[in-house]
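Practice problem 4.
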């Protein structure tokens, strides 16, 4: 029988792509999602269990029902700007929810844990490339909440033998090239889909959040990685754990940074349409530059992010944008 993997947030953007990759790799992904930001229609690759991480008894039920060999934990609130205006929600949902999940997993004897962390844990630093040993100095509540969960995992490693692969994501973009799943947030806050909505007339324009940063064109620089490359790394991380290779942190980014203006210009070229835009003030909590040192995942996991060119990410996101929607 194929092994089950419990995927929290499996109805969300990255989680749904992970479920597809897990099924292709011979696992049964069990989605656990409260559908607050996820979509029932995105659950296509395995069983669905509706539930909330704040309800620990529900988690215990699901562990007992499926006996998963591992957890992949995607479920989280993940918007930097919102985390600054509503930090309580971020600490409660992300940190308390994750604590419940980690505890329930340990109590069920499920000791392999793949965790979605973020480059936002690094914060504002002078290093050109952030590697896994860089200091963690988050400047927003989202990054702080994820950093706290990393620490909880470390503690449960000592107390319960929990083995974790912690992935610090840089900026995820693109969509399944086969169009089965894609990015669909309501409201949308992420750069690439917002640009595509502006191109398509679904919003009046892209507002560039800050043009006075200390970067060549004054806009923030990020390292974009294709969602399909990102979830491939998760399957490699799962195998790493199942092979008993132990707790490890990996950055997931390509090592190349692009400014907001560069992403906007590339989107105009790929779609062959003008991008309406305006300059706006900085968004609270944004770092100037977040670019990954990405050697460790390539060398140790054998990860190769072959789809993560700006052009391919935008083209796949555009195809999805024009055709794909979830109803519920
Ligand atoms: N951004 C922007 N306008 C928008 C949305 C995002 O200028 O409407 C910028 C944002 O300030 C950041 C970059 O685009 O520098 C990526 O933001 P996103 O929210 O996609 O991801 P984050 O880096 O916050 O995880």
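Answer key:
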């Amino acid at each position: 029988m194929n092994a089950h993997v419990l995927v929290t947030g499996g109805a969300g953007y990255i989680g749904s792509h992970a479920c597809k990759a897990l099924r292709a790799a011979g696992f049964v992904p069990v989605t656990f999602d409260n559908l607050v930001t996820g979509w029932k229609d995105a659950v296509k690759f395995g069983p669905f269990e509706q539930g909330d991480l704040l309800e620990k008894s529900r988690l215990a039920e699901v562990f007992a029902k499926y006996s998963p060999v591992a957890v992949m934990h995607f479920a989280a609130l993940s918007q930097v700007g919102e985390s600054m205006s509503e930090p309580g929600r971020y600490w409660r949902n992300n940190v308390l929810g994750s604590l419940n999940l980690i505890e329930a997993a340990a109590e069920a004897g499920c000791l392999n844990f793949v965790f979605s962390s973020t480059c936002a844990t690094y914060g504002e630093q002078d290093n050109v490339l952030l590697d896994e040993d860089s200091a963690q100095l988050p400047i927003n509540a989202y990054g702080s909440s994820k950093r706290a969960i990393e620490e909880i995992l470390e503690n449960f490693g000592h107390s319960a033998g929990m083995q974790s692969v912690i992935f610090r994501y840089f900026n995820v973009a693109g969509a399944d090239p086969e169009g089965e799943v894609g990015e669909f947030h309501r409201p949308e806050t992420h750069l690439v889909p917002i640009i595509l909505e502006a191109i398509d007339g679904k919003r009046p324009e892209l507002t560039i959040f800050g043009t006075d940063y200390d970067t060549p064109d004054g806009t923030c620089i990020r390292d974009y990685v294709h969602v399909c490359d990102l979830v491939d790394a998760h399957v490699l991380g799962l195998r790493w754990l199942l092979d008993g290779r132990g707790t490890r942190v990996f950055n997931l980014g390509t090592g190349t940074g692009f400014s907001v203006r560069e992403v906007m210009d590339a989107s105009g070229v790929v779609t062959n349409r003008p991008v309406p835009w305006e300059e706006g003030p900085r968004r609270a909590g944004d770092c100037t530059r977040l670019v990954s040192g990405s050697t460790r995942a390539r060398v140790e996991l054998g990860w190769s992010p072959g789809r993560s060119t700006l052009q391919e990410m935008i083209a796949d996101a555009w195809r999805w944008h024009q055709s794909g929607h979830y109803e519920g």
